Amino acid sequence: MNIVAIIEARMLSTRLPGKVMHKVQGKTFLEHMIYRISRSVYVDSVCVATSIHESCDPIVDLCKYLNVGVYRGSEEDVLDRVVKAGKFSNADIIVELCGDNPLIDPDIIDQVCELYLNSGAEFCSNAIKRVHPIGMDVKVFSQSVIEEVEKLTNDPDDREHVSLYVYENPKRYNIVHLPLSLKEKYINHRLTLDTKEDEKLIKIIFDELYPVTKDFRLKDILTLFDNNLKLDFINSNIKQKLVHKD
User: What is the pLDDT of residues 11-51, one digit of tens each?
Assistant: First the structure.
């Protein structure tokens, strides 16, 4: 089976526009993320699902430069965009990833993929019942399941949040959650890229760890937090956006 990591990325984010193309250690956050995903044992290929809006031309150019798949679709209907990116990539299984998460750990991707393959579930994740910090979110499901979902719902929230319909319908779909393996205090760290404060923290993490090894993992990030307790205060006041706008 062809396992494709699909990164949802665009330039017109509301709180920090163009963030995926901002740079640290000489490379864009998106390039760092693609490299980190490439370290996964299970992922066969990467496809960036971006928008047809002209602002996303730099994302397309980067993907072509890196020889990474890229699909351009609806700006607002992310579900449709990912479904078509999956078809474009000949995906059997999709690893759904958000471009806001340049620190994604390939070990965690592999843990969720392995659970999906061994459990017989239709949806596996570490983020619905959170067992890792925000920014390490992985969701795995089949292309056939998400094609079904695309036909079942026109709810704006479902169309924006690709797998929302799946994990909010546990009676319809067999859902398995990755078990907790970290101490509770580590789960509360915020490692996603959505605001200037988030970017400041993530740049510090890259500047500290990347020169030592560009293949650093979550355990290295958590050690950095343990050794510098002030880091957590950089973005601890940021509130995560709610999935449902009502």
Answer: 998 889 999 999 999 999 999 999 999 999 999 999 999 99
Domain positions in the chain are: 3-182
- The superfamily (CATH) of domain 3-182 is Spore Coat Polysaccharide Biosynthesis Protein SpsA; Chain A (3.90.550.10)
Rounded to two decimals, the pTM is 0.96
Residues 55/12, Cβ–Cβ less than 8 Å: yes
End-to-end CA distance of the chain: 39
Non-local (6+) Cβ contacts of 12 within 8 A are 51, 53, 55, 75
Is residue 24 within 8 Å of residue 206, measured between CB atoms? Answer: yes
Are 101 and 69 within 8 A, CB to CB?
Answer: no
> Which residues have C-beta within 8 Å of that of residue 106, sequence separation ≥ 6?
36, 37, 38, 39, 40, 41, 43, 217
Cα distances (Å, whole numbers) of residue 106 to 83, 194, 216: 23, 21, 10
